[in-house]
Each structure stands twice: as C-alpha cells, then as structure tokens.
Specification:
heterotetramer; A alpha/beta (438); B alpha/beta (281); C alpha/beta (388); D alpha/beta (264); A: 438 residues; alpha/beta; Rossmann fold; four-stranded parallel β-sheet; 19 helices; 12 strands; D: Nucleotidyltransferase, domain 5; Nucleotidyltransferase, domain 5; 2 domains; five-stranded mixed β-sheet; 9 helices; 10 strands
Chain lengths: 438, 281, 388, 264
Amino acid sequence: MAYTLTTWKEFKNYQNTCYRNYLYASKGLRCMGSTWSVLAPLKGLGEDIHIIGGEPHAASTAGTFPEEAREDISTAEKAGLGFHSCSYLKLFVGEVVRDKIAITDGTIKEGYPKPDLIWTTHLCSQHSKWYQEVSRRLGGIPMYPIDMVGGGNAEKDTKIVNYVSYQIEEGIRWLERVTGREFSDELFIKAARNEIKVLVLWGNICALNRHAPAPLDERRLIALFPPAVVDRTTDQTVRMYETLFEEVKHMVETGQSVVPDQRYRIVYFGIAHAYGHPEMARILRDAGAEIVASVYTFGTCGNFRGFVNGKWSWEPLDPSWVDELDLSTRKKAIIELAKIALGWPTWQGVRSYWALESMARAMITEYKADGLLLAPSRSCETDFRNGYVGIQRIFKGEIPTIEYDSDQVDVRKMDLPGAQRKTELFVHLMEARKRRSA
Amino acid sequence: MNEHEYVSMNEWLDWTRAKAIVAGVDVGAVSSKAVILLDRQLYAFSQVKTRMPKESAFKAINAVLAKTHLKLENIHYIVGTGCGSMQVTFASKRVTEIACGAAGAVHIWGPSVHTVLDAGGQSCKVIHCTEKGRATDFLWNDKCAVGIGRSLETFADLVKKEVTEIGRIALQSDSFPKISDFCVVYTQSEALDLIRSKVPLEQVIAAYHYAMAKRISILVGRSGLKKDFAIIGGVAKNPGIIGWLESHLKVNRLPPKPEWDPLFTTALGAALFADAFYRWQ
Amino acid sequence: MVNRDSDTIIERLRSITKDPYEYGKSLQAKGHLVAGYMCTHVPEEILYAAGIVPVRILSSHVSQAMTRSYMHETYCSFSHDCAYQGLAHHYDFLDLIVASSSCIHMGEAFNVWVRFAGFQGKSFLIPYPHIIETKPAVAFMVESFGEFKQFLEKFLKKSITHDDLEGAIKVYNHTRKLLKRLWEFLRRDHPPITGPEIAAVTLASQVMDKQECNQLLEQLIQRIEAEPCKEPSRVRLMVSGGACDDLRIFDLTEHLDHTVNLIFIDSCTAARYFWFEVPEERDNKLEAIAEGYINRIPCPAKDNVPGTGEKKRFRFIQQFIEEFKPDGVALLYQRFCSPQPMDVVALKPILNKLGIPSIDLELDTTLPVTQFRAQLEALIEIIKNVVP
Amino acid sequence: MNKGKILAGLDLGHVNTKVIIIREQEILGYVTVPTGFDVVAAAQTALNNALDNVGISCSELAGIVATGIFRDMIKGPPLNITRTIPEYVADAKGALFLNKNSRTVIDIGGNIQKAVSYDQDGNLLDVIQNDKCADGLGIFYTTMAKAFGVNEQGLSELALKSTKHVSVAIHCAASAESEAIDLMCQGIDIADVADALTRFIVERVAAMCITMPLEPEIVVAGGLAKSKALIKYFPVLLKQDVSVLNLPEYLGAIGAVMSYDGGK
C-alpha cells in the first residue's frame, strides 16, 4: 500500500511564502538571481532579504500556469530573444516584458516587482546573460555574477576553490557598497551553516532511494526539493529537511514506499519533466517502472562524496560533519560555501564528459538500475543536453538506454509523440532484458 | 490553360499607344508571377506554379506575352525579383523582394501601410515602409520558421484535401488541442499523432493553422507591428492562417482589394521599379 | 581586375585556409611539433614558447550528420564541424590538441575529440574564467596557465624559460600589430585592399607559424602601400558576430548588384582574434599573458562586467563604428548559438539609436547564397533609400 | 508454424496502411492504401482489397495481426484483430523471415525511422529511433518528388544522374527543402539537387544508426528502401554492407504475421 508523506503541506507553504514575500514585502531587500548561487552572503545583509531564483521560479510557474508560460515564452521571442535560448530564461524575461508575475500559490500579480539587486552565477554560456537582459529591461539593476567554472573535480581543485572564494569575498564588499548596509558576519555564518546543512541533508534523503523498494519516486523528489532551491539558508528549512530525513528513514526501516510496486528501477538524466507529462508517467507507472535516481533532483541542491580517487561516489556526506565544520570566520565560511556549491553534481558534468560518465556509471551500479533514461533538454545547453548523446553511445550496449528530446518548460520543443514511443520501447527493452537474464 | 497557370489582362488598354511598357517578374519558391504595366496602369499578369525557377521565369512572362500578343522586345524594361530573381535572365535589373514588396503594397493599399507581411512558400518577411513605399527595415524568418507556406500544401496532401479547402475548414472549430508551433516539422509530426487520440479532422486542421499562424505572429511581433498592416504572398490567400494570425496579433490586416490579388504584390513592385528605371534612363 | 603585386601573397594565404591540414603537415615536415587549438582563448604564446606551433581547428563546411550521434542536434554547426574534423581523422597528425574552456558547444566538440577521436592521450583543457572582468580572474588565469606550462614541460621533458615566453610574446604581438594595420587600411576612403581579402589573411594567420606569417604580412603591407588605391568605397558594411570561417560569405558581399565594401569584421575568426596585445615590459610573463587576454574584445559567452552587468564588447563595437564608419551592419551568428543572440537583442537598440540599419544572418554548415544575397542587397537598398 | 493457416498482417503507419496475406511461409498478396485520417476505414479497405486480390473471404482467415503506430486504434469491431505487436518487434520478426542471416534492420518509414537489432530467433536486442528534427523524412521524399514533377522512383533515377556534388543543410526536412530551393535559384541542375536531398536523408538515417553497434547482416526496409539513389550511400556511411529486403514496405505487415504465435 502506497505511503503518504506527512511533510507535504509545509514544503509547499514554504515555497509559497518565499515567493509571496518577494512579491508583496513592503520593506527589506528584493534579491534576484540564479538559486544556483551561494545564498548565504545575501543573508549577511539582514533578516529582511527576499529572494527570487530564476530556475525554480520559471519551473514552478510553468507547472502552475502552463498557458501563461507559453505566452511568456512567445512574448520573450517577440521581444527579440533567441529562438534557441534557455526557455527558463525566456519565461522569466517574458514576465518582465509583460510586467506581471505568476507564482506557485496560483496568484498572478500585475506589475513586476523590481529587484534591488541581482546576485547570480555564470556557468553555461548564457547563465548570467539572462540577468544582464533582465537588468537592462528594468533600467539597469546592479548585478554581480559569480563565475562557477564547473568541470569535474572542481570542489577539490584549490585553484578553483580560491577563485570562487575570492569572487564571493569581492561580492560581499560589493553588496555592502550597493545596499549601503553593513554586512553581518554573524548572520552570514549562521545562514552559511544552514545552507550547507540543507544540501547535505537532501543528499542523505536521496541516498535512501538505494534501498528496494525506493521510498521516494521522481515526482515526490521534484516536489520536495524546491524549498532547498528557493531559500535553503533558514533555520526552518533545516528543520523541515531533518524531519523529512527521519520520515524517509522510517519508511525504509518499515519497507514502505510512495510507490510500492517497483518492477524496474530507472536512472534518469534530464531536467524534471517525465512526471510533468501524464502520458510518459502513465506508461512507466503501468509497467511498475520508477525513476529511483536522477542527477537533476539529487544534484541540483544536494551534495555527495563526489570523486574519490578518480571514481564518482553517490555516498552522502554525514550531516553531523556540518555541525562540526569550523565556520568561525567570514573567510572560512566563504571557502566552505564555495566548496559545497562547486561540489554539486549537476555542475560536475558541465565541460567534463568524464565526470558525467563516471556519475552515470556510479548511479547505475549504486542504485541497481534496470534502465538508463536520458532526456536532454532542447533549450538547456548545460548538463541537460551536454554529453547526453555521448552517454547514450557508451551505455547503450551495457543497459537498456533510451534518449529522447525534452525541454524544461517550452512544450513546443518537446517531442511528445517520440517520447511516448520511446518510453514504450524503453519498458519493452527492460522486460526483454529481464527475460534474457532469467 | 491548366490549373498551374493563370493569366489575366485588361482588354480596355492598348499597348501600342503606351509610352512605357514595363514588366515585373517575381520568381518565388512555389510559383512565378509576371505583371505588365502600361504607363503605370495594370495591363496583364500571370502566375505559373512550378518549382523550377529557371523555366518558371520564362513560363510566367511567356504566358502574359501570349495573352497580350506582346513580344519580349516590345517591353521597354523588365525587373526581376524573388528568391529566383537570378534566373530572370531576360530582366535588365534585379530588385529584392523586400523593396518590391513594400513598393507594391503601398501602391495597392495606399500610404497608410507601414508594416507588410510577405508570407510566401519558402520564407516569411516582415517589412516596414514609409508612405512612399520605401522599405526602411525588415525581418527575415529564422531558419526554424522556414517553409510554412509549402508545408500547408504537404499537409493538405496528407489529409487528402485541397490546400484552398483546408484554410476554410481551419476556422470551423474553436476548441482543439494545441500542438507545437516551433517549426513545420514538429507541427506536422504532432498533427499526425493527433490521429492516435482520435481528434476529428477539422480540429487537426484548425490546430495546424493555429500553430503556423502563431509562429508567424511571433515574427511579426518581433519586428514590431506599425499600422496599417498588409499581408502579401501566397499565404495571404489562406483564410485559416489569416484568421488565426489576426486573432494572435489582435490586429486586422487591410482587406485585399478586389482588383488586386495579394499574390502579385511583389511582381507589381518590380514592375513599378521597372517603370521608374525606364523613365530615369 | 588588374593583377596586383599583392595578389600572389593573398592567394598563398588563401590557399592555406583552404587546406590547413597540408599546411600543418608541412610544418611537421620542417621538424616542428604542431598542436591544434579550439577557440581563441588558448594562450598560444605558451605553446609557441615551448617550440610548438599552434594551429587553430577550423571547420570544413562539409555537410554531414555523423557528428549527431556524438553531440546534440542543437549545438552550433561550427562546433559540429570542428568535432567532425576529429572524427574524420583530418588532424591525426597533430602532436597535441588544446582547448580552454570557452562556450559549452565548443567544449563538447573538444570532448568528442578526446573521447571518440583518439586524442585522450594527447589533449589538454585549460580552465579559463567565464567572466573575465575581475581581479580574481587574473589570479586564476595565472595559476591555470602555470599548470598548462608545467604540463607542456612534462610533455616535452624540457623547461620553458622566461626568455622563451618573452620571445613568443614579441612574435605574437607583432602579428597582432600587422593584422591591425591591415584592417586600418579599410578606414580610408580609398582602401588599396578589400575586406574579404583581409578576412582571408586574418583567418590564415590563425593556422600559421607566426614567424612565417609575419614575414608574409610585412611583404603584403609593403606592396599594398605602394599600390594605387581602389575606387572610393561606396556602401560601407560591417560584420559583427560569432565564429565564421566561411570566407564565401565575405566574398559574397563584394559580388552584389550594388558596390559594397566590407570594412570590418568583429568576430573571433577576425578582430577578436588579434585586437589586443600582451604587455611586453611586465616581468611575470604568465601574468602579462593573462592581462593581455583579459583586455581582448570579449566573447559574448564571457562578457559580463560585475557590478553593472555591462557588456564590454559593446564598447569596442561602438569604437569600431566611430572609426570605420559603417553604413550598415550584418549581425552574423551561428544557428543555435546561445550567447550571441543575447547580445544581438541588446545591440539592436544601440544600432537603431545610431541610425545604422542591420540584418541578421544565421550561419549553418551550408550557405544559402540566394537568401543571404537577397538580405544583404535589401540592406543596401535600405541604406540607399531605393524607391520606385 | 501456423500449419496451413492463412493469416493477415496489418501495418498501420502514419502515411500508409499495408496489408499482407500469408499462408504458412507463402505470401499470397499485399495491398497499400493511404492511412488518411480514418484509420479503421483505411485498414478495412486495405484488408478487403487484399482478400479480393487473393480471392479468399475474411472467414477463411485464421487470424489478423496488427502493428504500426496506429495498431491500437483497430482493436475490437469491425476488424476484431487477433493481436497487436509493437513495430520494432514486427520489424525484427519480419526481417528475419525475409533474410535468415539478418541481425539488424533499418526501417525508413514515412514519418519515423528506426534501427532494430535482434538475435537468430528474432528476439529484440536493441532499438534506436530518430529524434524529433528527423521526423517526416519519408513524407519529405514524396513531397520533393512531387515538387520535381516525378514520382519516388523518378526522384531516385533523377538523383542517380547527378554529376556535381552539392549539399543542403543537414538539420531537418524544412531546412533541406529550403536550401534545395536556394540551390535551384542559383541555377544548379535539379539532378544534383535531387542527389543532395537523398544524401541528406541517408546521412540523417545513418547518423542515427551508428549510435549503436550494428550487427551484420544489415538489411534495409520501409518505403525509402526502394530508392537506389539513397541506398547506394549506406555502405559508405555505415562502413558496412547493407542489402534491401524484398517488399521493403511490407516488412511490418509480414513481421506481424510472423508474430502470430507469440510476438514476444
């Protein structure tokens, strides 16, 4: 019998509250940017910081308002953005152009709330250009992009760690200048520890899916990670993920799952979409095929061992390690933050095919996968397209592998007919393999 | 005269009395058009449907010559235009479809025209122009928006209907599934797949036109729509595309003039250029 | 056209762009080590100092699909074509392949070489900042270049000295000066050489041994200075955009119905390649190289000034517009390129303000001649206020 | 197998519906009709025509097996088919029946293409299908033939006359057609354009195939397999020999029949 999570509501509310605060706050600072940025530095500016993050906002808006999303994207294209640019970006800019904003609680606010500053990252070729465009359209919002380099072993490469730390340090001085506020190391360090803790906790929660049956499926994982993406720096988020961790551990001990009937275990590479599409979801569900591990839901805001002497490991980090971390000074906190952010799996694959390959291999073995599902996103050139075709070449011979075109939010670019055909085929190949090995 | 060829002339005019006999020949991706003016008055025009630019340029001009008993040497000046203009070997000059489209549209609809959508078989261009018919700016479709006009014919074949027919059918349903409007390949593929979900044919046709119109509307929006708005080229004759395009843009085009088939606008523009060049000589 | 003294040199350089493989092999025959490099962020000076001749990997404009089973459909044709060079084994003779992290698409092309074309053992990827306008970036580049230097020293089992670097920097700066002088001829009203010719020369310089290149460039400049000038330039056309090694496009601009002069190309296969110099007096040579590369016209993928989000490239473009006085601009970029269109959308309003009309040309492996011709001629007609 | 039984195989494709009538190993007759937008009607017409040609009545059929993209739409009355089989399973079985030594079949259909590998008993090993941009290549081939005023056969013959090597953009049917027009507007001979178009299609299909190891013998089926101009490029691109199955467009229908007593 399917297990029902008790933590649901609080997770949904947390996300809604964050967005509502950004929309309606009468005082405080509105900060915009990729939530793939380290967020704690913003919190050093005070307790009245309201964050809106590009990717999660675009994703959740598309989920809540499919028709609006379609309109946002075509508005952005009418406004001159590239037909092949990131569709998160286009949805986001589309809202700016239409001067309105739609959020997950189902409300649409006319009049786009201008941010006071943009604090973001640069990794793919248009990551920070996204906010350059927003800044330009909103009349020149001050912005600070941090180059995250990416590529394989980044968090263990002192050269890269120093580079990113140095940028964060400079960034903090910039934050003080542009806001005229004094930066509180105390608040910053507290937020930094929370941020790291949440990322580590999420890694642990995901890792529990190595058990059979896997306690969580991709759909739940996608629904449960937004708080960590939207704002992971608060005490509340830490509490929420600790509770969730306990609950999922309990599920494992009692052999329960949100989807008990699991005949096939799937490893998934791609941006969350499979469950956004009932067609594909149904095909997999009917076959008892579940996505039990996904580099996107695991690795976008979760940390793991990463490379241990040249081989990737999805072993989670011990949460208590975070409590013992020495974050006594700003410098120390910055370095630990830089390391944790650089360690995100979703970044390791960028520009380093070997990391992506090693990650896939480790996930397939550690999660005892029956199949590998690759869904490169037509308009995301980072992890979610980069290398997937090569990955298919490499794994096709070893394990049932299919690859179909998808898109994070732009339904026009998805291959629904093809994706359905290929998903049916995928199930067939996994069955055939089981029969052969039997 | 077969379905692939269409000629018409103004019996009231006599070319032997004309001071300036000029022609414009527009060689497009699916058909070629020729227009003959006598002292800037429309005398004759023809359309020849063929995908072979070389022959079609000749076929188009020969059609009008035959009808009017003119000889090529009687024509004082010929301007070639359209994607196949290089193949109008008998023309004395070439002018682009952009300049000709603008000039022709303003001649037909008057100085209020400021945006001209040229939706042809192969490409879509949005042209901005002055009241004098001078192009000031244009936007050419991106590579992924190519072939919308042609695709309508392929689609008509697939659903076993006439291309003239599906345009009307497209306006008969107002609720239908939305399919990809990114490119003709995606749209066609998703339209075919609607069969699987047993969507009635008229809805599939509506969905297809709705999507193609959406794609064109993005191009128009991208270039900035300044009124008045005129549509020329083959697609201008497809009520399905036009209907949905107007509802996407929330702007109505200037209605076609009874005496002018929008298909000949660019050829007319070329003829107007021919007339001007002849007089400047 | 009368045959000019300079034609022979230009033809020689053109021929090198037509068959860079043969040229590369001829270098080896002369006993040089030859390294291929992708994108223009590779500090060639370091390779040159090590006695290795860097030759840029360019595309061959062969319409093929095989690369689509190695990298994604929607990567630009330049990256696909460069990947194809590896898979087709055109460059098996190379002693080394080097890239420095630039855009995702070219990164993937490099991955294909390393992973599927047999270059695993003889490749190096230089970590390179993606936002170059910062103090931290300099420090990072110095470290990163240092590691590259060490790699080369291990690879060659010899050390690269301060003097080696100094020499290489001088050679490369000289090339840059000469190329700059060539392009500046086009600021004149009666240029003695055409844009497409210089485009070919500039492209050749990217695959050549710079010392040989410098000799040819010097001779070329001498000769054209002696030559009678061409007829006054009519419509002045500037090209701005991404990698374009398809010289046919530039040649096309000179074969339109209207006389047009291509007077500047801002792209990584033209101006962005050489429009900077490495400070020579600086004692720490790696730092000098880093600073030089930071002062380049940035690639759109790396162009974001922290604090303001300004695009530094636009400053250069506006400078070029002032100096070269174009009447119109052709925005030329690869289909599927993501950073370029993000610049185009912000650049168009600037051009509009300056009253300079522009067109977009989307690049693919193949060249739609009649369409590009129509678009270019329409642009000229607009500039010339053509109306019946 | 199927001792003396007469079986019908239906392949309901995006563009055409194909029917084959087989007694044991002997092919009695076959018919193709356009699928149009009424799949059931198309299937019925095709089946009835086929039965008429062979001169037997529906009641003499021991069973009807359906495959193809629309197979599920004709379950139940009026056809009451015996069973349905996925296309790739039918492809494998059909190819093995038509060529015992084949281990890989490349099927180039109207809207989609796939490569299927299987063992000596026709058990499915792996499949690769085209991505979205390569949809509709078969339809495109027919459209271009029409544009040139010839039929599919004619387009192939035209392409074989080509003397000059020119290329079109490799991306998708839309780009290819647009550049074909561009070439013709440059005055390029249509034979050379036709060759460029067929090369574009085969490049796309081959690129898809080489994503997985291709076990010999490799056979080609589907409507486009009949284009000699197209097939001649496969060995070069795949670096392996290929042979064309006879009745290539009936591969699915034949495979359906062969799956009568157990498609899996």
